[in-house]
Amino acid sequence: MVIDVELRNVTKRFDRTTAVDNLSLQVYRGEFFSLLGPSGCGKTTTLRLIAGFEIPTEGEILINNQIVNHKRPYERNVNTVFQNYALFPHLTVAENIAFGLERKKLPRTEIRQRVAEALELVQLTGLDHRYPKQLSGGQQQRVALARAIVLKPQVLLLDEPLGALDLKLRKEMQLELKNLQHQVGITFIYVTHDQEEALTMSDRIAVLNQGRLEQLGAPEEIYEYPKTRFVADFIGISNFFKGKITGNTGQRLEVETEDGLIVKLPKEDHLKIGEKVHFSVRPEKMWLMSEMSSKNGENQFPGFIERKIYTGNATHFIVSLSYTQKVTVLLQKGDRESKRGPWTVGDKVWISWKPEDSVILKD
Amino acid sequence: MKRFRQQLFVFFNRHPSLSLLSLLGPSLFWMGIFFLVPLLIILLYSFLQKGPYGGIIYQFTLENYRRFLDPLYLTILIRSFKLAVMTTVICLVTGYPIAYRIAFASKKWKNTLLVLIILPFWTSFLIRTYAWILLLRDTGLINQLLLKFHIVREPLKLLYTEGAVLVGMVYGFLPFMVLPLYASIEKLDKTLLEAAEDLGATPLWKFLRVTLPLTLPGVIAGSILVFIPSVAAFVTPDLLGGAKTMMMGSLIQNQFGPARDWPFGSAISLVLMILVLISVFIYLRLTKENKGI
Amino acid sequence: MKNTPSQYPSLPAFPHPCVPPSPRPHISWLDWITGLGYLFLYAPILILIVFSFNNSRFNVVWKGFTLDWYIKLFEDTKILEALKVSLIVALASTAISLVIGTLTAWAMYRYSFKGKRILEGVLYLPIIIPDIVMGISLTLFFVLIKFQLGMASIIIAHVAFNISFVMVVVRARLQGLDRTLEEAAMDLGADEVTTFFKVTLPLLSPGLIAAALLAFTLSFDDFVISFFTAGVGATPLPVQIYSMVKLGVSPVVNAISTLVLIISFILVILTEKLQRK
Ligand SMILES: Nc1ncnc2c1ncn2[C@@H]1O[C@H](COP(=O)(O)OP(=O)(O)OP(=O)(O)O)[C@@H](O)[C@H]1O
Ligand SMILES: [Mg+2]
After folding, report:
1. Dist CA B77 CA B74 (whole Å)
2. Across the interface, do C203 and A103 touch by the CB < 8 Å criterion?
3. Cβ A208 under 6 angstroms from ligand 1
4. B71-292, what's its fold?
5. Which domains occur in chain A, in start order?
6. Count of alpha carbons within 13 Å of A151, Cβ hemisphere only?
7. What ipTM was predicted for this assembly?
């Protein structure tokens, strides 16, 4: 696979804060690559480093296998869609889109033609002569997109481009953006703090925390097999357990949690008896039963329903297994609840999950 | 050529301290030589003695400051202060309702009213003060009207009085009061007033407990902005006041003019400046504290 | 069409208690005070303007319309000379202070450095300190270094206070400038020079024009500082007007005053228009 952008041990420090901390990653040609993480984790800084607005304190940035650390932004074949759009208020829509083309000294007719194409691509035909102020938020967003795409950059950098839009428009634009990327075939590096957005749109996701890379992988990988507690917690909901390894029975690890539950986990070679482990289980992987059942696997524990939260297409049950250990169990509509439901608060229930649905976390 | 300019930009980008110096250089030079040095000269002169025919004798003395205690000069100092405070109070009392009215005016009117307040700032203070001579002198418009309607027998002496100076200063500095007041009344959350009404406050109570405290920063800003030019006024007392209404500004001018006493003039200037800086300092302290609320 | 509205019980005719009665325009005491305030601000100016057209030497009562005073005005070489001095001083000091003030504003906006707060304070000083003090101190300075008082000394003095005003206005504009716009320009392939001329300058220009107009007006209208720093042979208009006023009220003063006021009004309206853009 061709590598478009590569970061090698990049660190960026501002006066006191380390915004990006020893970050290494590769972005492949044509992929939709997301940088995901909570506010202040260094997503924007990473993007600005690639765009050329910041110079790394340490490490190297490569575009097209060439080190570009000290190249000015206009010397790089990447373009940015800014978080606040950064449309030039003194130029019309058409002039905004033509801005980059004019710098390339293209002939007039070609510029006009490409601007028209770009406007069509983002469905803004006819608004050429408006000023940014006269556009809605969604329209401004499209202009910002068109202005960058019209230059046919090798890589397009997008910093929470949908952040300012309302939920409905946001969902629409997510689809459109994805389509657009297929159409133009440009590599997208996409910054967001919205995990759902990252999961639905990306080919690969890099999860950042405090400037460090927590995990890099495809959406399913990140969701199903989070490597760290941070990832498991940040993406979706997880039930966390802490314990010590007490046995190793061929196929299974046996762990005694702090509350004295004996839990079976999938085998992991590098873990020894006596070691401490953290693991997590997704709420939808857990079963809820009225009684203990022989066919329902190895991990079965009694508990009380403490709360029941109805959210339309699903129901969350908060079940307390002990004084300190509570878990969330999620039942989809028409799921297993029908077996003997509906449970209510205070009911005694059994929960269970398959050993392979436990994910061991690095600390 | 273009290539060269670009290289220049890149060069400056790589050497921020050099570009900073070239940006600040001109103003450091100008302000240093033509503003700070002259102020230092005043400071220096204020401790020197005056020569027999004007000019300076380079001999240290505190005499120039001691002379402020001379009743003759003390009266002038006190008068300046008194008139400045009176101007400020009158401006505040008249400016507040005006600012309030503008802040609550309809959008269409608001802009016009504001421009009309700002406009005088852009016009010659000298000329506007001169206009009052036309109104106040013995044969001026006011006396003409009073005579015509037989309110008085003979013209009142209006010009060259403290009253005339006061009117002239209020007239000149009222916009300085209205603008900051307007700004803070405008910012006032109007629902707070409704809440006060809802809780049973009478209009007066509402004003005293809600509006006034919340617009206090504007009151302070306006008061200081009026007080400073008032206490240092030169044109107004010079044109509208007489010999009996001399203020600090005219006193300074006197020392550099007929009296030819530069050291004393420097000392008065310095005192005036310190008075002004103290009020600015108070202003900054008060507004900072107010922000915390 | 079964569900015609008439089938529903009609709403009570009286207004809902929550809706306040529609405001009837009435003139409150606030309106009165405000009106009087504006009258107070503008009556003297209006009377001055009216009297400048009054056909009476002593301009005591209205004797009919005339343009005589304006004709006299343009025959008065002293006034014309003073006007010329004022215009030259205003133009020169505006040009110089615009350049210096803008550079300073730029430095204050872009860089943080040691002693920035102190420099900021010093830069605000000329706005704050009494103009008479500034005028006196500069005069002493010129006398001390034996610099001939004249046009040059006035220009130097005016630049010294105008730098501060220009800096404040331009800096306010810069503060409102979105840094990402310049980054966007570079991102789209514009180098530093192009970015400056294509993005920064156009966005800054209303501020620059406003600053220039302000500096011009302040210089053109300044009396106190000019009064002290002017020497023989270079009398700016306000100083000329002052000496005429000191000699006594004359209709020619009314006329020239009216002209100066009108010039100022035009400048304000221009600035307002530009700020709107
Ligand atoms: N120019 C700067 N100077 C100093 N600190 C900075 C600067 N830019 C960013 N930082 C700091 O670096 C850290 C990372 O900031 P960054 O903007 O990259 O976060 P982010 O992940 O984009 O957050 P958000 O989701 O809120 O946009 C933050 O702690 C921020 O305060
Ligand atoms: Mg960000």
Report:
1. 5
2. no
3. no
4. MetI-like fold (1.10.3720)
5. 3-234 (3.40.50.300), 239-361 (2.40.50.100)
6. 31
7. 0.87
B288 exposure class (CB count in 10 Å sphere: 0-12, 13-18, 19+):
exposed
Helix (H, G, I), strand (E, B) or coil at B34: helix
Measured CA to CA, the distance from residue A240 to residue A236 in angstroms comes to 13
Q: Which of A51, A74, A90 sits opposite C189 (nearest CB)?
A: A74
CB spacing of B24 vs C159 below 8 angstroms: no
Alpha carbon of C175: minimum distance to chain A alpha carbons (Å): 16
Amino acid identity of residue B49, one-letter, is: Q
Q: Of all atoms in ligand 1, which is nearest to the CA of residue A193? A: 25
CA distance A34 to A207: 8
User: By three-state DSSP, how is residue A262 classified?
Assistant: strand
Q: In what order do the strands lie in the sheet with A326-332?
A: A287-289, A348-353, A299-310, A314-320, A326-332
| Identity of the amino acid at A303 | G
Q: Compare CB distances from C187 to A80, A88, A104 and report the shortest one's residue.
A: A80
Chains that touch C (3 or more CB pairs under 8 A): A, B
Inter-CA distances, A135 with A93, A121, A142, A224, Å: 9, 17, 10, 41
pLDDT in tens, chain C (277 residues): 334 334 444 434 444 444 444 444 567 888 999 999 999 999 999 999 998 898 887 666 778 888 888 999 899 999 999 999 999 999 999 999 999 999 999 999 888 888 888 998 889 999 989 999 999 999 999 999 999 999 999 999 999 999 999 999 999 889 888 889 999 999 999 988 889 899 999 999 988 998 999 899 999 999 999 999 998 889 999 999 999 998 877 888 889 999 988 888 888 888 777 766 5
Query: Which domains, ranges and CATH numbers included, belong to chain C?
Result: 29-66 (no CATH), 76-276 (1.10.3720.10)
SS3 A300: strand
Return the ligand number nearest the Cα of A192: 1
